[in-house]
């Protein structure tokens, strides 16, 4: 195949023509759909003779009119990707009319307008609108839309689009129509249409100005009982956005539609959000705490886009983090306020380190604002991130979303809540209904606070995770304590050398009793800054810097990067004793967790070395004692305890090795888990017994925390394979009154191969085979298992009658440890690429860091990448990731 074209940020140019209004009309049919568009066009420069180039893909052009005149074939150029109009009226504005024919029932990509599960549905971000009609499919073309939809009334009684419903009625032939109007400018990627057999849960929300907004959540009628939590989440998000950011909803109606076949997880189309059903439907019997939390966060995220993404959008797709990084940050803050801030922060940072840090160190590394791309869809893994929270397929998280959110968080860290809010207010005052850039957001934050952000913009332009080294020294005679920082960003593809960036470091100092020292002053770069608090923010902007604290009576233990104040890797001179001290005493709960994680990573790396050299594995008793003290600390949040006693993942450990050794890391992590379980079994059993509940399921933090701790303890105990603990897990499985507890018990039992595992998996499927979302969890649990011979088990699952490769909820990754696993994944990627390239591209990314492994695994993985690259008709989505992975 010819190499797809790479697109570069530096080549951006303003459009030659703007669209002022767009009137769309859809005549939906079973075999074909007719789309008519009437567009008011104005040239950017009066008298321009530039051609108007419209994007179009898989469209049948029926007619083109300019100012009412029908164009002949010689009046335009048409190819497989574009419709070009070379000669246009030299007027201030003119009307363009285009009729096209499309075939939604044949659209398996689930991009554009497609028909699935009996419904018509759209997905237009990033470049799906060009599959609906010819258009300038770019985000800086903002226009006001109307949309008329007509269809067979018996088959499609519900007709939805953006904005407010203006009129509806019956027409001849058993058909009906609905006319929608969106009074706000939007880019075409926010257009949406849904038609089908749907029922709605209805509610209202009264805004702070007293307007009543109608709220509707649409699903198949049988799923309506499972939408109560989604409605609660929507109303909570609307209230939170008013309280925290002063942002009020701007229309009379807000619709959410849940469909089972939806690539993006969720999509923020103006006033008509479309979700994968997994992120809307929940009941205690069919959804876990993680599902409930994901629904809360994702519904919040998509609603928050109404301002951060819709009212103010991106000038071009390179600026994607402008809306996504900001909105991820906002949904993180929302979830933090609705639950435990510390636990949410731990979860977000863990996700960043597990997925984004490795990406920043691999062939797919790119800045928060990329310099180039081949297929824009490949930057949308953040959309799938939300699905990942509840187990939709494999993803590799991109810097645009998760690291982008950390960049926004650093603004807030530096400015404080009040200063950050001032910056947000100015951003909307300046840019409402505009398509803007990351620099515009930066300028609003800077100007609203008269702030000096030095080299902060480097975060947008440099790929890679900064490595910050910290050395400390204490001068007893002068009563000063010094922290010396050095920063370095490793080379990444296309960026061999890096500049220093702006790194905010939130610091506290602990005295020998474990209390925070009240800081009085810090000397830096010739300036003495007065402080009167127990923590401060150090602004590290150079490659090497020193900060000296005054009036420190004894050598303190520093608590660095509190709350993870910057997305960096940290190397310190803290001893194990210092880390155990922080684990026991740090007032910053995030850093208590962090101290335990650092200790666990160090310990596990040492044990990996022992394993590789055939030395006996011995677990440090101080580590057991340290986690045991956390386990028994009744003053701590129970969900925090569950997080604190959870070991770092195998990927985190391999990421720290020069040559990743999956076998050694797996063996060591399994050993450490079993040793901890064995040594702490009395405490763990007590936790299981003391945290059961027979009361009705409630989704709130105290109950979630209780279940999280109980189920973490149960998983530890079941790992011992002791018959009494297997029986305990089986009893918990059978007596569970909600899916959170039942599925946790199932997962605990599924750790160990054997008849009990097989029987309980069969029982679970037999009980839930009628609920596809629960069955998806059953698939995922088995596909992600590390039991011996699991490649064969997963291969059999592909032939299971409940498995459908076309459904993005059911296409799962399997990054195996041997050649058969790699071949399995490679074959699936090639097969899936012909059906759904977006999902296939996410799966092929499992190979992106193949050079991190031993030579045998490298050869096996490389062979699969080469096989994928040789496939006929390879999509641009898969080509981009596979080619960059091979070139690394």
UniProtKB/TrEMBL annotation:
Domain Peptidase M1 alanyl aminopeptidase C-terminal: 577-887
Reaction(s) catalysed by this chain's protein: Release of an N-terminal amino acid, preferentially alanine, from a wide range of peptides, amides and arylamides
Alphabetized GO MF terms: alanyl aminopeptidase activity; metallopeptidase activity; zinc ion binding
UniProt keyword NAD present: no
EC identifiers of the protein: 3.4.11.14
Cofactor(s) needed for function: Zn(2+)
Ranges where the Peptidase M1 alanyl aminopeptidase Ig-like fold domain occurs: 464-572
NCBIfam families: pepN_proteo (TIGR02414)
Protein name: Puromycin-sensitive aminopeptidase
Originating organism: Brassica campestris
């Amino acid at each position: 195949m010819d190499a797809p074209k790479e697109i570069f940020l530096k080549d951006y140019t303003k459009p030659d023509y703007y669209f002022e209004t767009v009137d769309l009309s859809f005549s939906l049919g079973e075999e074909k759909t007719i789309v008519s568009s009437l567009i008011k066009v104005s040239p950017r420069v009066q008298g321009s003779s530039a051609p108007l180039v419209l994007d179009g893909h898989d469209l049948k052009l029926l007619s083109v009119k300019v100012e009412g005149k029908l164009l002949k074939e010689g009046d335009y150029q048409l190819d497989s990707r574009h419709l070009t109009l070379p000669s246009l009226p030299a007027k201030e504005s003119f009307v363009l009319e285009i009729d096209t024919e499309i075939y939604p029932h044949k659209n398996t990509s689930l991009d554009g307008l497609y028909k699935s599960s009996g419904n018509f549905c759209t997905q237009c971000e990033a470049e799906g609108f060009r599959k609906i009609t010819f258009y300038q499919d770019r985000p800086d073309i903002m226009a006001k839309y109307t949309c008329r939809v007509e269809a067979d009334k018996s088959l499609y009684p519900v007709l939805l689009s953006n904005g407010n419903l203006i009129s509806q009625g019956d027409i001849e032939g058993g058909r009906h129509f609905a006319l929608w109007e969106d009074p706000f400018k939007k880019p075409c990627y926010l257009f949406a249409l849904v038609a089908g057999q749907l029922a709605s849960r209805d509610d209202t929300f009264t805004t702070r100005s007293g307007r009543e907004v109608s709220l509707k959540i649409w699903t198949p009628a049988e799923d309506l009982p499972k939408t109560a939590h989604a409605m609660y989440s929507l109303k909570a998000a609307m209230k939170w956005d008013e309280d925290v950011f002063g942002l009020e909803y701007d229309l009379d109606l807000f619709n959410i539609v849940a469909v089972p076949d939806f690539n993006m997880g969720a999509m923020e189309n103006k006033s008509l959000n479309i979700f994968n059903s997994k992120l809307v439907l929940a009941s205690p019997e069919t959804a876990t705490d993680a599902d409930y939390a994901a629904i809360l966060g994702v519904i919040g995220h998509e609603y928050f886009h109404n301002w951060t993404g819709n009212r103010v959008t991106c000038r071009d797709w390179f600026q994607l983090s402008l809306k996504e990084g900001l909105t991820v940050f906002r949904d993180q803050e929302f979830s933090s306020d609705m639950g435990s801030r510390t636990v949410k922060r731990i979860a977000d940072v863990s996700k960043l380190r597990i997925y984004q840090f490795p990406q920043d160190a691999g062939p797919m590394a790119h800045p928060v604002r990329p310099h180039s791309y081949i297929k824009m869809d490949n930057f949308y893994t953040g959309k799938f991130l939300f699905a990942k929270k509840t187990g939709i397929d494999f993803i590799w998280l991109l810097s645009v979303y998760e690291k982008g959110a950390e960049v926004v968080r650093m603004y807030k860290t530096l400015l404080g809540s009040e200063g950050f809010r001032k910056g947000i207010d100015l951003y909307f005052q300046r840019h409402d209904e505009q398509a803007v850039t990351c620099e515009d957001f930066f300028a609003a934050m800077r100007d609203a606070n008269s702030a000096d952000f030095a080299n902060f913009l480097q975060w947008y332009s440099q790929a890679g995770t900064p490595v910050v080294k910290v050395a400390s020294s204490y001068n007893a005679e002068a009563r000063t304590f010094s922290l010396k920082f050095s920063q370095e960003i490793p080379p990444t593809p296309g960026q061999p050398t890096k500049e220093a960036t702006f790194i905010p470091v939130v610091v506290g100092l602990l005295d020998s009793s474990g209390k925070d020292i009240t800081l009085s002053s810090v000397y830096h770069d010739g300036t003495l800054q007065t402080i009167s608090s127990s923590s401060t923010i150090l602004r590290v902007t150079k490659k090497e810097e020193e900060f000296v604290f005054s009036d420190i009576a004894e050598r303190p233990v520093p608590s660095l990067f509190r709350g993870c104040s910057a997305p960096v890797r940290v190397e310190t001179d803290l001893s194990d004793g210092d880390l155990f001290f922080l684990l026991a005493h740090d007032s910053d709960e995030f850093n208590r967790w962090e101290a335990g994680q650092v200790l666990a990573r160090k310990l596990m790396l040492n044990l990996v070395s022992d394993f590789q050299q055939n030395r006996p594995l011995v677990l440090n008793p101080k580590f057991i004692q340290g986690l045991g003290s956390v386990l028994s600390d009744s003053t701590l949040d129970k969900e925090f305890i569950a997080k604190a006693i959870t070991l770092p993942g195998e990927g985190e450990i391999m990421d720290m090795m020069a040559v990743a050794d999956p076998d050694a890391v797996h063996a060591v992590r399994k050993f450490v888990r079993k040793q901890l379980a064995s040594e702490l079994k009395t405490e763990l059993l007590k936790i299981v017994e003391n945290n059961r509940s027979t009361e009705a399921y409630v989704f709130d933090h105290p109950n979630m925390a209780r279940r999280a701790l109980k189920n973490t303890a149960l998983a530890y105990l079941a790992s011992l394979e002791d018959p009494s603990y297997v029986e305990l897990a089986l009893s918990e499985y059978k007596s569970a009154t909600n899916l959170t507890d039942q599925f946790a018990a199932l997962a605990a039992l599924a750790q160990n191969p054997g008849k009990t595992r097989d029987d309980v998996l069969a029982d679970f499927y037999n009980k839930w085979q009628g609920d596809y979302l629960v069955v998806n969890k059953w698939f995922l649990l088995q596909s992600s298992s590390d039991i011996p011979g699991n490649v064969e088990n997963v291969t059999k699952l592909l032939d299971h009658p409940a498995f459908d490769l076309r459904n993005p909820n059911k296409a799962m990754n399997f990054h195996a440890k041997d050649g058969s696993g790699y071949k399995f994944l490679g074959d699936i990627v090639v097969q899936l690429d012909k059906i759904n390239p977006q999902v296939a591209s996410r799966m092929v990314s499992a190979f992106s860091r193949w050079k991190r492994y031993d030579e045998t695994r490298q050869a096996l993985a490389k062979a699969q990448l080469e096989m994928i690259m040789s496939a006929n008709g390879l999509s641009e989505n898969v080509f981009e990731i596979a080619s960059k992975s091979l070139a690394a």
